[in-house]
Design brief:
7 strands, alpha/beta, 21% strand, 12 helices, 7-stranded mixed sheet, 253 residues, Rossmann fold
Amino acid sequence: MPAWSPLASARVQQPANERGGRLRQQLRRSNRLRSAYYFVIAVGRAIADSRGAARSEFDRCYATGHDPWSYGSNPEARERYPLAVGLLDEWRAGERPRALEIGCGEGLFTELLADRCEAVLAVDLSEAALERARGRCADRENVEFARWDLRHDNGLGQFDVVACMDVVCSIRRPLARRRALRLVAGSVRPGGALLVSAFIQDDFVERAVWARWLGLGARVNIEQFAAQRGVLPPGRRRETEEHLIALFETVPR
């Protein structure tokens, strides 16, 4: 799921009255005012973020139909998949590892992992997404699906490869995100690989100091993964117009 961008929200929510028009003009003229405005919105969203709110949000999105974030139909969004599996292929060097995919959604990336791995455990918060993923991967006998909540549930053990694509950046509460980062990184066995991606926000957000405090922005998100215990930076990285993709190795025994 693409992470929230305050600038994108401002563009979508066009105020109907003149006061809203004047506010937009003032925000465009003053970087400080614009920064303060978006900071307040970001803090409000972080406060409102919770396990229950996240589950409800995902359920609403999948209730609208298949591919709610256009990962399957948008060429720019799907561009990250061949880059991500390219990084994985460089690391695995022909071996077939055991993989955990956190936030598998409807199974688009799961298919690619199944072609390269001995076994894949694919988990997601949404039962609707899991049901569609099971149908997509019905002919893959090496894939198992389970409902699992990164915010709340305990770890699932350690795996040769852990893939976490556009998941942690959707957690808006800093403390919950830090827990998620530790849990994801701790799910990789020593000498294994951590494959992650993050949605690139508006450039204003990517550069804002307060956004770094709140953990917003693709670059900050990737840096947070790199800073986890046992993760070896720098990792292999690729970039599209919409995503940053990185593969990190963990400290061997």
